[in-house]
Amino acid sequence: MAETQKKTIVVTRFDPDRDEAPRQQSYEIPVEPDWKVLDALNYIKDHVDPTLSHRWSCRMAVCGSCGMNVDGSPKLTCKDALSEYGDTVEVTPLANFPVVRDLVVDIEGFMDRFQKVKPFILRAKELSVEAGPTRQSPAELDDFRQFSMCINCMLCYAACPVITNEPDFLGPAAIALGHRYNLDTRDEGQAERNKVFREDGGIFACSYAGECSEVCPKHVDPSGAIQQAKLANVIDWLTGLVLRRGEAR
Amino acid sequence: MSHARPVVDAMKPSKPGETRTAPPRPPDGFPSQGNYRAYVAFGFGGFFLFTVSLLVLRAVWALGNGEAAWNRVQASFQNPIYVIFHALAFLWLSWFILRLFRLFPATQPKRIGPFQRPPDALLVAGLSGAFAVVTLIVAAILWGCA
Amino acid sequence: MRRVLLVLEPVIWVLFSAGMMVGGLLLPAWALVMGVAGPLGIASTATSYDHFYALASNPLGRLVLLAAMALPLWGGAHHLRHLWLDFGGLRSDGLVGTLCYGGALLGSLLAIVAVVRL
Q: Beta-carbon neighbour count of residue C33 at 10 Å?
């Protein structure tokens, strides 16, 4: 029978009631060849140290809960194969976020930004039911489809150097989502969203590092969305100077 | 890897949470590792954009002052430091614009009216080719061949 | 100062984008010929006053030179300001931004004068 492989998982621990600052703790555990990083963490919690705290849910890269930094890179731990790492694997909480406990970060900052971009259909005047369904061609859907694939895992925020240094920056996922709605033919809120995009920490704070798109597990390409949003915003700003526009409620 | 200096205030929530949080840490690897390195080098291309255009301004200003002033400026450009600087600028800015062209397709909308965005590879090849052609033409004109 | 820069951001971004394009397309050739080949004596015509004056003083030449001098300044200024921010310079962003874009503005104005007076 083949010997079970072992790996050492080095995990950040932080209990605000006991610890002054985060510290690291190592666990040497047996691992299976087909494990993801999340399996290792769950093994630790189930068999070694039940006090370890980490977020996870779907185990299939659709819920966005299990984002962490693995060997320095933001990853979805349920998607990331453990076999790709060496004998020692370092798991830390997502970069750029305050840490609540162990590997759990405070995501309220993201929720604030999320709400700021009004990620829903805005209409100047609501359509009546009698008007019938709103028609949208496949080409029109395709315009924004890619940007709608975001699972809010926030790996992009963990990769972004602007998030580190400019506390008000809206960030990749929020901007990509706002742009997704700006591109939706059913939406009439472009002027309103573009005003938010021009505020302090808006889209022009992005310096096109592109790391967000590199780490995105859903290939949303938020940095592409942001650059597209910049051009659209300039056009919106210019037309706004000339035309007085009504705004969607 | 995880021993980076923590930053304050990144992703700070609008309402404080109920427990004390540990401060956020900057991304591992910034600025010197992986893709961050290319990004910082790209940003530093701004230094060459700024300085080379100022040196062009210096030359054109001297041109307006007459032949003696022009010759003085040209003589100063023979200083090895200037030559090395310009050689570095040529390499850095060429890399800069080729990288910009590689990133360019994603910055454009997928479709403008009935016109689809051309395939990315085609756009990049076209733009890079245009860079080569323009550089050759401008160089030939400046050299005095054209 | 940061507030003022924020209001001007769309304009700055357009100038910056144009500056990257124009700078990247025109300045490498300039650096190679006027900065390396010419001074090293490999391209002797390039450094000749008569040759360059003939190129620069016609209307198209003035326009191209103006673009090559003014626009890349904005590309450079924007990049440098953002590099400063990337290395933790938020608190002095207003000052640094003003210096960068102020420098670009001054250079652009001088560039206009430089081509007009040829």
A: 26
* Closest residue of chain B to C78, computed from CA coordinates: B46
The predicted model scores a pTM of: 0.93
Question: Which residues of chain C are within 8 Å of residue B70 when distances are taken between CB atoms?
Answer: 49, 52-53
CA distance B134 to A74: 41
Contact call for C73 and B53, based on CB within 8 A = yes
Residues 67-106 of B with CB under 8 A from C: 67, 70-71, 74, 77-78, 82-83, 85-87, 89-90, 93-94, 96-97, 100
Name which of A36, A43, A108, A49 is nearest A75 in CA terms: A36
Say yes or no: A53 contacts chain B, CB-CB below 8 A.
no
Query: C94 near A166, Cβ under 8 Å?
Result: no
Q: Judge contact between A176 and A228, C-beta under 8 A.
A: no
- For A29, the token pair is 């555990």
Residue B10: φ, ψ to 5°: -65, 135
Neighbours of A38 (CB within 10 A): 22
Residue B146 sits at the chain C interface (C-beta within 8 Å): no
Q: How far is CA C116 from the centre of its chain?
A: 17
Interface test with C, best of A163, A204, A227, A242 (most C CBs within 10 A): A204
Q: Which amino acid is at A208?
A: Y
**What fold does the segment set A108-242 form as a domain?**
Fumarate Reductase Iron-sulfur Protein; Chain B, domain 2 (1.10.1060)
Sign of torsion over alpha carbons A224, A229, A232, A234: negative
Domain ranges of chain B: 28-91, 104-146
C-alpha closest to that of B56 among C45, C23, C101, C79: C23
Kindly report, residue by residue over C7-50, the tens digit of the pLDDT: 999 999 999 999 999 999 999 999 999 999 999 999 889 999 99
**Distances, alpha carbon C26 to alpha carbons A30, A98, B38, B99, C19, in Å:** 59, 46, 22, 16, 10
pLDDT in tens, B30-69: 888 888 999 999 999 999 999 999 999 999 999 999 999 9
Amino acid identity, position B65 = N
Q: How many CB atoms lie within 10 A of CB A18?
A: 7
The superfamily CATH assigns to domain A5-105 is Beta-grasp domain (3.10.20.30)
Q: Tell me whether C68 touches chain B (CB under 8 Å).
A: yes
ipTM of the complex: 0.95
Question: Could you give the domains of chain C?
Answer: 2-116 (1.20.1300.10)
CA distances, B83 to each of B74, C16, C32 (Å): 11, 27, 9
Q: Touching check for B24 and chain A: CB below 8 Å?
A: yes
Listed residue (A226, A122, A98) closest to A184, CA to CA? A122
Q: How many CB pairs under 8 A join A and C?
A: 33
